Amino acid sequence: MGEQYTHTPVTVDGKSAVVIGGTSGIGRAIALGFATEGADVIATSRDKSKVDAVTAELEEIGATTAAVTADVQDAESLRNLHEVATETFGHVDILVNSAGTVARDALTELSEDDWARDIDVLLTGIYRASKIFARDMESGSIINISSMSADQARAKRTPYCSGKAGVNGFTRAAAADLAPEIRVNAIAPGFVKTPITQGAYDEGTEKREIINQRSPMPRVATPDEIVGTAVYLASDASSFTTGEVITVDGGYSPASI
Ligand SMILES: NC(=O)c1ccc[n+]([C@@H]2O[C@H](COP(=O)([O-])OP(=O)(O)OC[C@H]3O[C@@H](n4cnc5c(N)ncnc54)[C@H](OP(=O)(O)O)[C@@H]3O)[C@@H](O)[C@H]2O)c1
């Protein structure tokens, strides 16, 4: 007879999570998904009304939560977030970094301010938050929302592509630093219909037509299609996965046409 078989289930039940950029789009879907799966969750961003709205949704699901704003460009606000989360949960198991901005100018038109803001929000913000939360995470999972754009040429997106390439590098290096207690992984979504895309992915737009033609799955994703990967990376089922970037793009990146 062989050894008795066991495996760790994919669940975040009983865990505590903080989702930065958790008030909209992908981050909000992950926050609500975690809560639905039994986690306690704080979802935060800069805008108090958005924070209050998602906190009410989390309460409705039954999660222990707290309403607190945070700006990844402001380390003091992240320290306050960490303090509130620790008071609320006792300790934090999962940190999701999903804050995002995107400048849309060609390189010759791009202002230094816009360049600096995108790099600061997309990359340095992840460093700030991870550093603060990792200090007292005992057995944690940090999940960075990267993008397939980290590895692609996209016109009028130099800070975005640079920032996301940085996120992938940060993810691998931080995973080496924080092992074995804390795992650090990234999810690289493809095209997901959220407010950041400003309607560009709506059916009937020129961009959407091109996406539909080029993608093996001729559509864009909904935010909830990113949630399962986040639950997996947050759960103990991914206990040997760290420093990894998982692309969730409907096959767009590897497509040969
Ligand atoms: N949608 C896509 O197609 C796609 C594809 C690949 C990757 N991504 C990435 O996924 C992440 C989430 O984007 P999304 O599509 O879900 O966009 P979204 O709906 O616009 O959400 C962005 C979130 O980031 C927050 N945020 C912005 N600046 C912040 C700051 N300085 N500090 C804290 N929070 C901040 C926003 O809230 P406040 O304005 O209230 O701060 C909001 O909650 C981003 O990193 C984005 O680059 C998106």
UniProtKB/TrEMBL annotation:
Instruction: State the organism's lineage.
Output: Archaea, Methanobacteriati, Methanobacteriota, Stenosarchaea group, Halobacteria
Q: Which family does it belong to?
A: Belongs to the short-chain dehydrogenases/reductases (SDR) family.
Q: Which UniProt keywords are listed?
A: Oxidoreductase
Q: What is this protein called?
A: SDR family oxidoreductase
A GO biological process this protein is involved in? Answer: fatty acid biosynthetic process
Q: Which PANTHER family match?
A: 3-OXOACYL-[ACYL-CARRIER-PROTEIN] REDUCTASE, SHORT-CHAIN DEHYDROGENASES/REDUCTASES FAMILY MEMBER
Tell me which residues make up the Ketoreductase domain: 15-190
- GO MF term list: oxidoreductase activity, acting on the CH-OH group of donors, NAD or NADP as acceptor; quinone binding
Domain of life according to the entry = Archaea
Q: Which residues cross the membrane?
A: none
